Amino acid sequence: MTFVSSTKDTENLTMTLVTEFAADRERVWQVWEDPRQLERWWGPPTWPATFATHNFAPGGRCHYFMTGPDGTEAHGWWEITAVDAPHRLQIEDGFANEDGSPVDPLDTTTMVMTLEDTPTGTRMTTVSRFRSADQLERMLGMGMEEGMKEASGQIDALLAALAA
């Protein structure tokens, strides 16, 4: 992965992460579309993800949990709100209970992931939009930015392993 940038915009309540990969757009799209591939990179390396459900279609729901080094589980849910393969994906994202139900249905972020061709592969831009400045600061304080960087850093190994 080539890390390009990470930008926090407190005025527009967004955080943008830009990375590039030496693979075509269709191949990078698969790391989101296939739950077994998604499990190999979503979450920091010390908090691997397991997707209990993964309905990758508009209106579909996903329930995942990340398991920490001490066995602690952190659950999350997604609602897929738009899919334009292999270009754009939009997700509502929130914390979940163990059964995948939202902890607080109003405490969500909207994540828009866009893939673009580059001369050497694919650029992935992920924009997370927050509901308030307090939510943005709370999520960044929990390590969201570093976690997303670490998670994205695992995609290269996945792309290389599956190409071999």
Automatic annotation (TrEMBL):
* InterPro entries registered for this protein in UniProt: ASHA1/2-like_C, START-like_dom_sf
Name the Pfam families for this protein: AHSA1
> What sequence ranges are listed for the domain Activator of Hsp90 ATPase homologue 1/2-like C-terminal?
23-159
- In the UniProt record, the signal sequence range is none
Instruction: State the family named in the UniProt similarity comment for this chain.
Output: Belongs to the AHA1 family.
The protein's name is: SRPBCC domain-containing protein
Report the source organism: Sinomonas puerhi
